[in-house]
Specification:
- The protein has 479 residues and is α+β, with helices and mostly antiparallel strands.
- The chain contains eleven helices and 21 strands.
- The protein has two domains: 194 residues, FAD/NAD(P)-binding domain (3-Layer(bba) Sandwich); 225 residues, 2-Layer Sandwich (D-Amino Acid Oxidase, Chain A, domain 2), CATH 3.30.9.
- Strands 4, 5, 6, 13, 14, 15, 16, 17, 18 and 19 form a ten-stranded mixed sheet that branches.
- A hairpin with a 3-residue loop joins strand 20 and strand 21.
- Helix 1 runs parallel beside helix 6 and helix 1 packs across helix 10.
- The radius of gyration is 22 Å and the shape is globular.
- It binds flavin-adenine dinucleotide.
């Protein structure tokens, strides 16, 4: 007698849901993914791969080590989505922290990176471990000022030249730290995972399909969904809730309680043609939530820059952080934010916030005050499980044997998350034991660059973002 097919449903096609659908379908599991938007990975932005968590001074060393390991795994999974350029961390003089505060953590991370390479040479995706980070003194910066900016930097020094020319060197503490934390391009990530899933016969992907209700009946899940104006239903053996900041809605449908936070945030799309060379990403540290909050400068090709500013008039919003209640697992965002998520921003709001972002950045890069506003912000709401708003490395929780919640805070946690789900399916006898942490994702090499580029550009265009945001800065680091 033929064994009955074990059917897995994934609700939500962000980076979490798409990646777990990919992971399980590659292992031979029958997966159906429901995504209400037009395309996969079209939720809140993802631009920085936290390969060491150096952006976050306040998190534990343990979280940083987890982020490093997970980021290496993510690069191996989605190499086509990575922007191979370093990040510079600068501490302003007026900040209460010190540039040297990062040193011991950087050493720890470097040691861990070496260890990961010893365990598996294929982990050497952040370049030479000796160059995982490099320090630049004030004198180094003055010397670099004498050199021309470079469009294709080949060394860490060449990447640093634009900073020596354009940032207010006197406002910063020294040394500056350059670290191999790369960028990740959300449009290319969405294109890669969509094209890859389309090749897999075990995966059924429903976009523009909204899950309206979920009921548990005799250990199975009845999913009611709306597709092309019609209400339909299907029964599944296992449910993965990957609904992002709306995960609490699925919990509520099932009558389950869960503590979580949801935070609405935004980053701004600008263009500045004052520079000749290619920039690394730059972080100017600052105290979150104050007018001096951290400023993050993320380069894209063709003079585009994405800006974050951890102040209440740039990236953060008053009332933007909400928590679940004893009656509902879904934290309730104020209607203003939900309307932004569903319908977009008014022109005035884009202008007001992007102008504040440009002003915030110009205190460190004066010529940036000439930058132009280019499009709607990159924005959205993200969930944080529990009640610690500073948690950055999180992955999954389970309720019973057949219901998993994806609870990542950073994109890099997706493989760790998927491993836990595979383990739970092994426990149910759906997957063989050997499937655990089986990471043969070589199939990505069959994806064609021109297809990824085409799908990424079309996704940027359909979401009204400049085409350049779908392009990578070129690859120059020895990886
Ligand atoms: C401003 C900002 C900047 C950020 N920058 C970074 C960064 O640089 N690096 C990083 O790693 N992370 C970053 N993050 C966090 C990152 O965006 C999130 O952690 C990540 O998107 C979470 O992925 P997800 O798949 O869990 O959720 P989402 O991406 O939100 O995906 C959930 C999906 O579920 C779908 N869905 C929900 N309900 C239903 C339903 N009923 N039926 C069908 N579909 C449904 C939604 O349409 C959505 O597509 C940032 C977040 C913000 C807000």
């Amino acid at each position: 007698m033929q064994k009955e097919l074990f059917r897995v449903a994934v609700v939500g096609g962000g980076v979490a849901g798409s990646s777990v659908a990919l992971y399980l379908s590659e292992l031979g599991v029958d997966v159906t993914l429901f995504e209400k938007s037009k395309s996969l990975v079209s939720g809140p932005p993802i631009c920085h791969l936290h390969a060491g968590g150096n952006l976050y001074r306040d998190i534990s060393d343990e979280q940083c080590l987890t982020l490093l390991k997970e980021s290496i795994e993510l690069i191996r999974l989605y190499p086509q989505a990575i922007d191979y350029r370093p990040t510079v961390i600068a501490v302003p003089k007026e900040d209460s922290g010190s540039a040297s505060d990062l040193f011991s953590r950087l050493e720890l991370l470097q040691k861990e990176y070496k260890k990961l390479i010893e365990e598996d040479a294929a982990n050497r995706v952040l370049g030479d471990p000796e160059l995982y980070y490099k320090l630049f003194s004030y004198e180094d910066m003055l010397a670099l000022k004498e050199r021309e900016e470079v469009t294709h930097p080949q060394t860490l020094e060449e990447w640093m030249i634009p900073l020596s020319h354009h940032i207010e060197l006197e406002k910063l503490q020294y040394p500056l730290v350059m670290v191999q934390e790369y960028g990740i391009n959300i449009f290319r990530l969405g294109a890669t995972v969509s094209l890859w899933l389309a090749k897999n016969k075990n995966a059924t992907i429903f976009t523009q399909t909204e899950v309206k209700d979920v009921k548990e009946e005799n250990g199975r899940f009845l999913i009611e969904y709306e597709q092309e104006g019609e209400c339909k239903e299907q029964v599944f053996d296992y449910l993965i809730n990957a609904a992002g900041f709306r995960s609490g809605e699925i919990d509520d449908m099932l009558g389950l309680r869960r503590e979580r936070l949801v935070e609405f945030k935004a980053a701004y799309v600008t263009k500045c043609e004052a520079f000749k060379g290619s920039w690394p990403e730059v972080i100017f540290h600052g105290e979150r939530g104050t007018p001096r909050g951290m400023a993050q400068f993320t380069p894209y090709p063709d003079g585009y820059f994405q800006l974050h500013g951890m102040t209440k008039n740039v990236t953060l919003f008053s009332d933007g952080l909400v928590k679940s209640s004893p009656n509902s697992a879904q934290p309730k965002l104020p209607p203003l934010f939900l309307s932004k998520i569903e319908k977009g921003w008014s022109k005035e709001a884009v202008k007001e916030r992007t102008s504040s972002a440009i002003k915030h950045m110009s205190q460190f890069i004066p010529v940036f005050s000439n930058a132009k506003i280019m499009s709607q912000p990159l924005y959205g709401a993200q969930q944080i499980p529990g009640e610690d708003a500073s948690l950055r490395a999180a992955d999954i929780s389970f309720e019973g044997e057949r219901y998993a919640r994806c609870e990542i805070v950073k994109a890099s946690s997706v493989l760790n998350m998927a491993d836990h789900i595979a383990k739970s399916l092994i426990g149910l006898g759906v997957l063989p034991k050997e499937s655990y942490k089986k990471r043969d994702f070589s199939a990505h090499s069959s994806l064609k660059e021109e297809d990824i580029q085409r799908v990424a550009e079309s996704s940027a265009k359909s979401r009204s973002y400049p085409k350049s945001l779908a392009n990578r800065c070129f690859r120059s680091i020895d990886v």
